Amino acid sequence: MPDIVFQIAIIITKIVVLTFIVVLPLVPLSVYFERRFSAVIQDRVGPNRVGIPFTLLGFKKDFHFFGLIQPIADGLKLFLKEDFTPDHVRKVFYWMAPALTVVPALITVCVVPFGSPISIFGHSEKLVIADLDIGPLFIFSVASLSVYGITLAGWSSNSKFPFIGGVRSTAQMISYEIALGLSIIPVLMYYGDLNLSKIVQYQADNGWLIAPLWNEHGTIFSPAYWSTCGPQWLFWFPAAIAFLIFTISIFAETNRMPFDLPECETELVGGYHTEYSSMKFAMFFMGEYAAMVIGSALIITLFLGGWSMGFTLDAKIADWHIAGIGLAGLIHIGVFLTKLIGFILFFILVRWTVPRFRYDQLMKLGWVVFFEAALINVFLAALVVAAPQLGPVIIGLGAVLLAVVTVAVIWVAKVSEETPKVLRA
Amino acid sequence: MAVVKLQRPKLNFGEKIYFGALIKGFFLTMSHAVKSLRGKSVGAETLASSGLGVTMQFPEQRWDSHLPEYYRGAPALVTDEQGRERCVSCQLCEFICPPKAIKIKPSEIPSDDPWAKVEKRPLEFDIDMIRCIYCGMCEEVCPEQAIYLRKDYLITGLKRADMVHDKKRLYEIGGVRVGLVNKWNELK
Ligand code: SF4
Ligand code: SF4
């Protein structure tokens, strides 16, 4: 009996620590980074003032701390604003929608491995809330629920701009989910596993998927690596294509800048959250950034080695201990968060670099380019993965078939994109 | 008017792929970011930047010494070298002021005053700085060259009443203008 209590206590601790101490603070942090980084890109300063006003307490200097407290001030402001519900909305859905965007994003946290198993006084504990064997599928299925939040927000607002925003978002998310799902099939084929913890462990031992600079025989500096790295590098090509498609689709899924048509200010005022105010608006905001954090976490986990440091260093630090607490787990959390913040910065850089697409371009990119590319990539990866077991004749046959299929798909895509003949000029 | 049909430019393969432009964009934004962190942004020097981007960080750094000659700050009344109020309360400025920021209550100068010949001076002269748009019309219209836009720009207050400059405050800001200042001439 005490064992079960102990188990439950551990699970609750993990939920509280990983969601509310590790992930949730990342949301305001990424808002802060967004504002500071965009400011720096545009030769501005950005919020650097909000701090602790020590001068009010009689001290000499205020404590600014680079304005890191700004997001809290923003949140407080939104919290104190009037929560206005317009008369013309459909109340139940209007109230449900913000929660429906935040909750899925936070639920997906539970399968992300934050670090290697941490050992405390001989008791080893995995740093993942739910060690599911269907990690990525779980994330996709839950994260795609957040489209309901946006759609319901658009529909229940009962006004034209949110409605268009909601419709756009539905179409966009459904289109890109296909590319998203198809693009990681090669990756899952390669790992032969859907458990994210095991995927990361595999990458720690055998090289990150898109930086296979080491394997179990050594790093690039040892000759043993060079004699065995062939298949790894061969798979690098489908992996890189998958990485590209997956990353861009994540951008589209999270409604980030080049694809933020559901809320594009220039056309739709505020998009689906036009009618929202106060904390409800903040929830949409939070949901968007939480989705961005989870998206980055997923990309890092699948392609960039998750918590692993790489270069076979992970195995070396595995049994460092201080006072009975394994250091490896803590270091790995640090590595993971560093990568996560790095990737979030990349998200922000993209937002301030790439101009928004037109809606038809977005749809074309999703359906005509990425869908086909991901599909072909699946066959390419299958060929690469299966190659060691096949004879040269069959490989050659497969390659020819692949080339034919590729040409056919490109031809179909081209034909479908041809502008219809103008009958009357 | 003739109809001009614009042809969309034909993009070559590289331009269609779009990645080249993306990479170029990343280099552009990143070079801005690096430059702005090092305080070397274009124009950082002329704009007296604080070392981050081109921005001057206000309460610590002031634009004061960089203000151009033609800067239009708070409007204020001036006295001449003999200490005479130049304003004769003709109310032209009150009339011209686009947002109706000026309120004047004229009064007669008593006959025993050394400046009795001037006949009129304002009893009250209020400029509501919440309304004032710093347009300079008052300065332009004043026949006595009694009102000038000075370089004060930090007009703050905790109440609306604080933001109304009365006559005393206006003369405080304005100070003394020496000599006949012809507004079409160089400032003297
Ligand atoms: S400031 Fe000039 S325009 Fe205004 S009332 Fe006085 S004299 Fe007339
Ligand atoms: S500067 Fe313009 S707005 Fe201000 S008091 Fe003079 S006339 Fe009125």
Helices and strands in order, then pairings?
The complex is a heterodimer of chains A (425) and B (188).
Chain A: H1 2-23, H2 26-41, H3 70-80, H4 91-107, E1 118-120, E2 123-125, H5 135-143, H6 146-156, H7 160-183, H8 185-191, H9 196-206, E3 214-215, E4 218-219, H10 223-228, H11 230-253, H12 265-268, H13 278-303, H14 313-317, E5 321-322, E6 325-326, H15 327-353, H16 359-386, H17 392-417
Antiparallel strand pairs in A: 1-2, 3-4, 5-6
Chain B: H1 13-17, H2 19-37, E1 75-77, H3 92-96, E2 102-108, E3 120-128, H4 137-141, E4 147-149, E5 164-165, H5 167-174
Antiparallel strand pairs in B: 1-4, 2-3, 3-5
Residues 87-93, 104, 141-142, 144, 146-147 of chain B line the site of one iron/sulfur cluster (SF4).
| Computed CA radius of gyration of chain A, to the nearest angstrom | 24 Å
DSSP helix fraction of chain A: 55-70%
What gap, in angstroms, lies between the N and C termini of chain B?
Answer: 55 Å
Structural class of chain B: alpha+beta
Offer a quick outline of the entry.
The complex is a heterodimer of chains A (about 425) and B (about 190). By secondary structure, chain A is mainly alpha-helical. In chain A, about 65% of the residues lie in helices and about 5% in strands.
Q: What can you see in these coordinates?
A:
The complex is a heterodimer of chains A (about 425) and B (about 190). Chain A is mainly α. Chain A has 2 domains: about 20-80, no CATH class; about 85-360, no CATH class. Helix content of chain A is about 65%, strand content about 5%. Chain A has 17 helices and 6 strands. A two-stranded antiparallel sheet of chain A has the order 1-2. In chain A, strand 3 and strand 4 (about 220) form a beta hairpin. The N and C termini of chain A lie far apart (about 85 Å). Chain B is of the alpha+beta class and about 190 residues long. Chain B has 2 domains: about 15-55; about 65-175, Alpha-Beta Plaits, CATH 3.30.70.3270. Chain B has helices at about 15, 20-35, 90-95, 135-140, 165-175; strands at about 75, 100-110, 120-130, 145-150, 165. In chain B, strands 2-3-5 form a 3-stranded antiparallel sheet. Chain B is elongated and about 90 Å long. The N and C termini of chain B lie far apart (about 55 Å). The relative contact order of chain B is 0.15. The model of chain B has no long low-confidence stretch (mean pLDDT about 85). Chains A and B meet through helix 2 and helix 15 of A and helix 2 of B. One iron/sulfur cluster binds near residues 87, 90, 92, 93 and 147 of chain B. The site of one iron/sulfur cluster has 14 residues of chain B, from helix 4.
